[in-house]
Design goal:
The complex is a heterodimer. By secondary structure, chain A is an all-alpha fold. Helices cover 59% and strands 0% of the residues of chain A. Chain B is 71% helix and 0% strand. Chain B has 7 helices and no strands. In chain B, helix 4 runs antiparallel to helix 5, helix 4 packs across helix 6 and helix 4 packs across helix 7. Classes of the chains: A mainly alpha, B mainly alpha.
Chain lengths: 128, 139
């Protein structure tokens, strides 16, 4: 086959080859290095430790607004549930009673702030 | 003939004497270079590798400072230096007292509340005191 007849497929081949090399370099060989991360990106194990620290700080300084702001940093879908579950599992997972107590106290404070279920008033009929 | 076998393959085949062939090679290499550039741009800027399992050592300074503040708040109640040091090791990297000093500097620069600064200062002072006690040789 004549060189001219082969068309420009070699350009596409070259571009794809280059793209593959570029992605390999950018994702595997030299990926973006994150140095200033947020608590939400921490490994679950470290998130638990961070949450425990929030509870310990709350135990010493019961400022629920501050505790909530800190918990938000962890990016939990339901912060109350995450704290409550950790409080329940604290002792079985090797935590101290003080840690379980701190987590329980924070969970209770968060639970108090949850919206109360709306109850519809029912008519009470008085029967004589 | 023997001389020809020592020549580079491209020259043997007369590729570099062929203008059209040269041009094709040049464009092929340019296409590769363009692909590499696009690939790196995509991999670094548009869709970089996302880290979801990072370690505390990589936390941004404001988060590190808030963590130290939490340790200081807890320490102000329990006065347990061993526990405070253990909690500070969470941050990794520098020594626990180094992390406190760094946090204190950052908090002062950023204008943290005086009560928070006082708590961190208390922790730093207590750590300094304990370190001096530990370094004092027994008589």
């Amino acid at each position: 086959m004549n060189t001219e007849e082969r068309g420009n497929w070699y350009l596409i081949t070259g571009a794809l080859l280059g793209l593959a090399i570029g992605l390999l370099y950018a994702w595997v060989i030299n990926p973006v290095d994150y140095v200033d991360t947020a608590p939400s990106t921490l490994k679950p194990f470290y998130k638990d430790q961070y949450r425990l620290m929030i509870a310990s700080a709350y135990n010493a300084n019961p400022d629920i607004v501050r505790a909530k702001a800190r918990l938000e940093l962890l990016g939990d879908e339901d912060a109350y549930r995450a704290v409550a579950e950790q409080a329940q599992n604290a002792l079985s997972e090797g935590g101290t009673p003080a840690e379980a107590q701190a987590l329980g106290k924070l969970a209770a404070a968060l639970g108090r702030d949850l919206p109360m279920p709306v109850s519809t008033p029912t008519e009470v009929s008085e029967e004589e | 003939m023997k001389q020809a076998s020592n020549m580079p393959l491209a020259l043997q085949r007369g590729l570099w004497h062929n203008t059209s062939g040269m041009r094709r090679w040049l464009f092929f290499l340019l296409a590769i270079a363009g692909g590499v550039a696009i690939g790196i741009f995509y991999g670094w800027k548009i869709n970089p590798v996302e880290y979801s399992d990072t370690v505390p050592e990589r936390l941004r300074q404001d988060y590190r400072t808030d963590y130290v503040l939490m340790v200081a708040e807890a320490f102000s109640k329990d006065q347990d230096m061993a526990l405070a040091v253990e909690r500070l090791t969470f941050l990794g990297g520098k020594s626990p007292d180094g992390a406190v000093i760094e946090a204190l500097k950052f908090a002062e620069q950023e204008g943290y509340r005086s009560t928070d600064l006082a708590l961190m200062k208390e922790l730093a002072d207590e750590m300094d005191f304990f370190q001096k006690v530990l370094e004092t040789p027994e008589q």
